[in-house]
Design goal:
alpha+beta, eight-stranded mixed beta sheet, five-stranded antiparallel beta sheet, 11 helices
C-alpha cells in the first residue's frame, strides 16, 4: 500500500489552477439578469465581467473585450471595480493604467471616463447621468505615506476624460461604500482614519445629493453614526423606504441595524452570530434589499449559523419591520460577502464542502436555485473530505476553533496517524469557511490531512474573539496553532514528527513565527509571509500602514516588541526545513522579506527553498504559478516526511 502522501490522486495541480475561477462580485437585476466578475488564472489572472440573461437557458456573455482586465488597486486589495449602469452596459476599471471606462454594450468599444493620470477609483454607484466613485490620489511621499481620498462624480458621456471628475467630498483618511437612496436624493458612506482599521472603528456619513447648474454636489454632509465609542460599522446602504441600514458590532457581534436620524441604532435580527464581514475589499456587503417599493421590507441577509460550535453561513430573508426570518433551505454553507437582490431575486456566490464556488440566482419566494457559473468541476465525491469541527483547548484558558479535513481516498482507509498540514488564513482579521477547496483536496486525496485553524483574531466568532489578537500577533495565533498541532498527535490523528504548517501573507507570518518559536512543527511553507515586522510597518501600503499599531503596538514606542516578535530575529531557534514562495512584485509584503529570511536559513544550514514568481503581486493569479507552487509544496513535504509523490517534479532544496 502506498504511504500517506504518495496516494495516486485524480486531482492534479493543473486541475486546481483550472478550477480556480475567482469570483469577486455579483449583481442581479429585477428581471433576473445576472452579472458577475471572475478572475481567470488561465488568462494570467485577468478579471472578466459576464452577463447572463433572465432565461434559465441563456448563455453567459462577456461584457467587454479581452484586452481589458477589470481590476482596481485602491487600498491595493481593490474590489468594487465594475458595475452595470442604467441604460445598458457597465463601467469598469482597467488594471493596466487604473483608468475607468464605459462599455455601452457587449463587445462595444470601451470609452474612457477619467484622465490617465494615475488616480485610482473604486466602488461605483450609478447616480444621475454618471457614477459616484471613491478616488485615491497617489502621494509623492511614496509607499506608506498618506494618500488623499475623495468621493467624486464621473459622467458617462466621457466629458471627464480630460477635465477630470467632480469632487464632492474629502476629509477622512479612508472612504468606502457610497450608496444612494432609492429616490436619488441622499448618500451614505463609511469613513475611518489611521490608526483604525474598518473592523475596529468607523463612522457612517450622510449628505443630500443635488444636481445643480454647476454640476452635482453634496449638501449638509455629517456623521450619522459612530461619532463616539469604538464601533465597527460596515455595509452601509438604504432600505426601499429610504431608511439607512448598517451592520454594527456594538452588541459584540456584527448585526444588521436601522439607523435613525439621530444616530440611534436598532438591531433587526439580534443574535450572537455574525451578520457582517471585514471589508478588506470594496464592494463587500452581507445584505441587500429585495423590495422594489417602500412597502416591501424584505432583506436578503447572510448570517452565521452556529451548531455544536460550528460556524457556517446561511442566506435567508429577513422582514425588516416584524423581524420575521424566512429560512431558505439552500445547499450551501459558505458565501462570498457580496450578496445582491432585486425584484424578488437574490444573486450570490456560494459553496459547500461538496460544491465548488458558484454564481447562483435564488428565487426568494420558492427558494429555487439557478447556477449560472461554477469555478470548476468538483472531483468524484469519494475523493472529497468531510470537514470535522474541532474545538481545542489553547493557552491561558482559551479555546481555538478549527476544521479538520481527513485524508480521503476510495482506495485507502482514513484510519491511523497521517501527515497533517495546518492551513493558516491571512488577514489576520479574516476566516476560512467549511467549503470545497481544490487546494485542500489536492493534499487530502494524496493521504495528507489538512486542518484550517481559526486562531484567536479570526472573524466569524464575534468582536471579543477577533480582538484576542490585539497586541498579541505572533503570540495568540502561534499558541493556537501549536495547540492544534499537539492535539492532532495526542489524539492519534497525526503522525508524530509529521505535522506541517502553511499560510499566506499574515498567515505566512504566523507560519514563520510558529516555526521559530515552537517545536510543534517539522516543516513550514510561507506564501509571501512577513518575516520582519518593523520592515513591514515601514514598507507596506497606506491601507495597512498602521494596522500593526493594534496587532503589535505603535512605533517607535513598541520598537523592542517588533524586534522580539520578528521571525527573522529568531532563526537560531528554527530546526526544521522551510519553503518560501513569493511574488516578485508584491507591494504588500515586498520580496526582500523572503530573500532576507532565506539568507538567514542558508547561514544556519537548514534545508530550504525560495521560489520567486515574476509578475505576481500579493497572491498568485497565474495558472502556471499556482501549479508550480502547489507541486513545489508537495515535493517539499515528501522530502521532509519521506514519501515520493508520483508525477510531481522534485523541488531542489539548498
Amino acid at each position: 500500500m502506498d504511504s500517506h502522501g504518495a496516494w495516486t490522486s485524480p486531482l492534479q495541480a493543473a486541475d486546481v489552477a483550472a478550477a480556480g475561477l475567482r469570483f469577486s462580485g455579483v449583481v442581479v437585476a429585477a428581471d433576473g439578469t445576472l452579472w458577475w466578475a471572475e478572475g481567470r488564472p488561465a488568462e494570467g489572472g485577468r478579471v472578466a465581467v459576464l452577463r447572463r440573461g433572465p432565461d434559465a437557458q441563456a448563455d453567459a456573455v462577456e461584457e467587454f473585450a479581452p484586452a481589458l482586465d477589470a481590476r482596481t488597486r485602491v487600498h491595493e486589495y481593490g474590489g468594487g471595480s465594475w458595475a452595470p449602469v442604467p441604460g445598458g452596459g457597465l463601467v469598469l476599471a482597467s488594471a493596466a493604467d487604473q483608468r475607468w471606462f464605459h462599455v455601452a454594450a457587449p463587445g462595444a468599444e470601451p470609452r474612457p471616463l477619467v484622465p490617465a493620470d494615475g488616480v485610482r477609483y473604486a466602488d461605483p454607484v450609478p447616480w444621475g447621468r454618471g457614477v459616484l466613485l471613491v478616488a485615491e490620489e497617489q502621494s509623492a511621499t511614496g509607499r506608506g505615506g498618506a494618500l488623499r481620498r475623495s468621493l467624486v462624480h464621473v459622467p458617462l458621456d466621457g466629458s471627464a476624460a480630460t477635465a477630470g471628475p467632480t469632487e464632492l467630498f474629502t476629509g477622512p483618511g479612508f472612504l468606502a461604500a457610497p450608496r444612494v437612496s432609492p429616490d436619488g436624493r441622499r448618500l451614505v458612506w463609511i469613513s475611518w482614519d489611521h490608526p483604525d482599521m474598518p473592523w475596529q472603528r468607523t463612522q457612517v456619513w450622510t449628505a443630500q445629493l443635488a444636481d445643480g447648474p454647476d454640476g452635482p454636489r453634496l449638501d449638509d454632509a455629517r456623521v450619522l453614526a459612530g461619532a463616539e465609542g469604538r464601533e465597527s460599522l460596515v455595509h452601509s446602504g438604504f432600505a426601499p423606504d429610504g431608511t439607512v441600514l448598517v451592520v454594527s458590532d456594538r452588541s459584540g457581534f456584527w448585526n444588521l441595524c436601522e439607523v435613525a436620524e439621530d444616530g440611534e441604532l436598532r438591531a433587526l435580527l439580534p443574535e450572537d452570530a455574525e451578520q457582517g464581514f471585514p471589508p478588506w475589499t470594496f464592494g463587500t456587503t452581507s445584505w441587500a434589499a429585495l423590495g422594489d417599493g417602500p412597502d416591501d421590507d424584505r432583506i436578503a441577509l447572510l448570517h452565521a449559523a452556529t451548531g455544536q460550535g460550528q460556524v457556517g453561513y446561511r442566506l435567508d430573508v429577513l422582514h425588516r419591520r416584524s423581524g420575521r426570518l424566512d429560512v431558505l433551505e439552500l445547499p450551501f454553507t459558505a458565501y462570498l460577502p457580496a450578496v445582491s437582490a432585486a425584484g424578488g431575486w437574490i444573486g450570490a456566490v456560494a459553496a459547500s464542502p461538496e460544491l465548488s464556488a458558484r454564481v447562483v440566482r435564488v428565487d426568494a419566494l420558492a427558494g429555487e436555485v439557478l447556477t449560472a457559473r461554477t469555478s470548476g468541476v468538483s472531483p468524484d465525491p469519494a475523493f472529497l473530505p468531510v470537514p470535522e469541527f474541532l474545538t481545542v483547548p489553547s493557552e491561558r484558558g482559551r479555546s481555538v476553533h478549527a476544521y479538520r479535513y481527513p485524508p480521503t481516498h476510495p482506495d485507502h482507509g482514513s484510519d491511523g496517524a497521517a501527515p497533517h498540514v495546518l492551513f493558516v488564513h491571512g488577514g489576520p482579521t479574516a476566516q476560512s469557511l467549511a467549503a470545497y477547496s481544490p487546494e485542500v483536496a489536492f493534499f487530502t486525496s494524496r493521504g495528507i490531512g489538512v486542518v484550517d485553524v481559526q486562531y484567536g483574531g479570526s472573524t466569524g466568532y464575534g468582536r471579543a474573539y477577533r480582538e484576542a489578537l490585539d497586541g498579541n500577533w505572533g503570540i495568540v495565533d502561534v499558541e493556537d496553532c501549536a495547540a492544534v498541532a499537539r492535539y492532532l498527535v495526542a489524539e492519534g490523528l497525526a503522525a508524530p514528527g509529521k505535522v506541517g504548517i502553511r499560510g499566506g501573507s499574515a498567515g505566512g507570518f504566523t507560519v514563520l513565527a510558529a516555526l521559530t518559536g515552537t517545536d510543534a512543527f517539522s516543516a513550514g511553507t510561507s506564501y509571501y509571509g512577513v518575516a520582519d515586522l518593523r520592515a513591514l510597518a515601514e514598507d507596506t501600503h497606506d491601507f495597512e500602514s498602521r494596522y500593526l499599531d493594534s496587532l503589535v503596538g505603535p512605533l517607535p514606542a513598541a520598537a523592542d516588541v517588533y524586534a522580539q516578535r520578528a521571525p527573522l530575529h529568531h532563526v537560531d531557534g528554527l530546526t526544521c526545513p522551510v519553503l518560501l514562495l513569493q511574488g516578485a512584485d508584491d507591494p504588500v509584503v515586498p520580496r526582500q522579506q523572503a530573500e532576507t529570511f532565506a539568507d538567514a536559513l542558508h547561514r544556519k544550514g537548514l534545508p530550504h527553498a525560495l521560489v520567486v514568481f515574476p509578475g505576481e503581486q500579493h497572491g498568485f493569479r497565474r495558472a502556471e504559478n499556482v501549479v508550480a507552487s502547489l507541486e513545489a509544496e508537495l515535493s517539499f513535504y515528501g522530502q521532509v516526511w519521506g514519501f515520493d509523490p508520483p508525477g510531481i517534479p522534485r523541488l531542489s532544496l539548498r
